[in-house]
Amino acid sequence: MANLSIGEGFIFTLLRLRNYVEPMGLLNDVASRGASGAKKIVGSRGSKPPRYSAAGLIAKGLRGESWPRVWRDVPLRSAYDVIIVGGGVHGLATAYYLATNHGITNVAVLDKAYLGSGGSGRNTAIVRSNYLTPEGVAFYDRSLALYNSMTDDLNINVMFSERGHLTLAHSDSALRTMHWRAEVNKLQNIDSSVIDPQQVKEIVPSLNVSSDAHHPIAGALYHPPGGIIRHDAVVWGYARGADHHGVEMHQKTEVLDIVCTGGEGPDGKGRGGKVTGVRTNRGDVSAPIVVNCTAGWATLISDMAGVRLPITTQPLQAAVTEPVKVFLPAVVVSGSLHVYVSQTDRGELVFGAAVDPFTNYNVRGSLDFTEGLAGHILELMPGVSKMRLLRQWAGLCDMTPDYSPVMGFTPVDGFLCDVGWGTYGFKAGPVAGEQMAECIATQRTPKLIEAFKLGRFEAGRLVGEKGAAAVGH
Amino acid sequence: MLLVPCPYCGPRNSSDLRHVGEAISRPDPNAASPEQWRSYLYLRDNVADWNVETWYCTRGCRKYFKVERNTATNEFRDPPMPGNKIGGKA
Question: Pairing state of beta strands A165-169 and A219-223?
Fold first, then answer.
């Protein structure tokens, strides 16, 4: 974040404090996670990072040892094999899987602010795989599998709560799309089905399912494997894991330019060129491979390499209420009402909405959003009318024309992109990292991300995912 | 919330208008190469800086106009340029 306000900085400080205090939560949670029978998927090369546990904290306290840094703080070197621009879930996961799956450890992750300061710390932490296109479903299902085994793989409690995910339909046409999605999902062995309003009421009693609502609930797509996860722990977990395998993380390191040779554009950039390194505010660094994982800032970074992307940047706002007793057992999404809501383990309701209706790079909240959100929430759950909002925030989304990402190689040799993640980047973080790592290590586009190549726009092969990826339609 | 300076109606809340997008010129469909056409369809500069863009005054004069806005700060630069039509009927 270029301009962190004092408020955000303060909240961040609190979050950092929580990082040290909350491992206590492990005592009652890690046992149940381990018992859930999650499949072990990542074939990790070498050891895992040590368990990030309350027991370790207490033992160190008793022995009078210091609680070590979660990742090392090392000087920036002048050359690496791979430079990853952007220290969010996508960048860190790419670095982690490069090290664990492919043994490439001479990697630097650069972030102009702190790790997880962009979308990774601003999303609403929902994960699911009930998408609309077969490409999308296969992709997000893999991501969900990686999230399922993450607590074990990274040895940090990511507090994955598989609580079920409801996408409400308020019209016949929406219900038809839900049936369509359910059938696509079932064909790929995703647990997903259409349920009627009475069944919705049984799962979430606080919803107003009466037919006299302004937008009555006609049914819902029910997806039991969906849920929420602690997004900060995912960021820290990947950073710890990557650090454990020798990857370097450099915060407050802003990329000012990407150095290329041989391209058709000015300074050797553009089509046919080759990346040789980056210029940062802390000096020049050379590398044959530079990966762009910068979400909302994606076009600013790729412009530095002379690569134009079909991306516009729009903020998405979210908000959280004061904590109350648990009453909302599932994640509830309504496309027609442009809102999604879940209740955190602390009892706060977390709301998200559609992206703001005009492009900009500003992460300030707006009253328009709060008013609209409150109206829509009360339409769904009239019972929460007296709840107070604690705070609201915004994150930058990199929107593509077809609501699918842009992944893999670009016309500039050595410059790769993992961007265009719009409003659905967090839930894709693990699989995007895994596939990008494979792409970098093998220098071939993996099958799972073949459909998301930048070249699809020139070839006219768009992957239309708007019906299942966005709430603003 | 954004106060958009419509050249005909004066400043109006952005919810009264539609953000059409960056002002780009449409190539001649008969002469354009597929590459030019795709870049017209999909590619935008998306700068974090001053940018000329098109708005449509949906709930006011129902006219298209161009205006310069800073996408990093959301300031508008006067004056907007009346009569500049882009896309659709004006």
Answer: antiparallel
Task: Label the pairing between strands B10-13 and B18-22.
Answer: unpaired
From chain A, the residues in CB contact with B45 under 8 A are 299
- Is the predicted pLDDT of residue A427 greater than 70, yes or no? yes
Distances A460 to A47, A101, A139, A274, A401 between C-alpha atoms, Å = 44, 33, 21, 26, 12
Looking at beta carbons, which residues of chain A come within 8 Å of B40? none
Give this prediction's pTM. Answer: 0.87
- The better pLDDT of the pair A136, A289 is held by A289
Phi-psi map region of A347: left, alpha, beta (phi>0 left; psi -120 to 50 alpha): left
Helix or strand (DSSP H, E) at A417: strand A415-419
- ipTM over 0.95? The verdict is no
Q: Is A347's pLDDT higher than 50?
A: yes
**Cα(A127)–Cα(A89) distance, integer angstroms:** 13
Provide the pLDDT confidence category of residue A462 given band limits of 50, 70 and 90.
confident
Catalogue the E-assigned strands of A116-164.
Answer: 126-127
pLDDT confidence of residue A67? 85
* Mean pLDDT of the residues in chain A: 88
Say if residue A288 is preceded by a cis peptide, omega within 30 of 0.
no
A246 near A103, Cβ under 8 Å? no
pLDDT at residue A8 above 80?
A: no
Q: Where are the beta strands (DSSP E) in A293-384?
A: 312-321, 331-334, 339-343, 349-355
Average pLDDT of the residues in A183-207: 95
The domains of chain B are located at 3-81
Domain of residue A113, CATH code: 3.50.50.60
- Give the other-Cβ count within 10 Å of A5's Cβ: 12
Model pLDDT, residue A21: 40
Q: What range defines the domain where residue A51 resides?
A: 6-158+230-311+402-469
Domain B3-81 maps to which CATH number in 3.30.2270.10, 1.10.600.10, 3.30.565.10, 3.50.40.10? 3.30.2270.10
Chain B partners of A317 at a C-beta cutoff of 8 Å? none
Amino acid at A183: E
CB contact under 8 A, B19 and A359: yes
pLDDT band at A467 (very low <50, low <70, confident <90, very high): low
Give the one of B2, B44, B48 whose C-beta lies nearest to A361's C-beta: B48
Q: Name the strand (E) or helix (H) holding A10.
A: helix A6-21
CA–CA distance, A300 with A118 (Å, rounded to integer)? 15
Report percent pLDDT > 70 for chain A: 89
Q: How many domains does chain A have?
A: 1
Nearest to A368 among B15, B38, B48 (CB): B15
Q: Is the pLDDT of residue A14 over 90?
A: no
In terms of CA atoms, which chain A residue is nearest residue B72? A361
User: Is residue A390 within 8 Å of A320, Cβ to Cβ?
Assistant: yes
Q: What is the mean pLDDT of residues A118-133?
A: 92
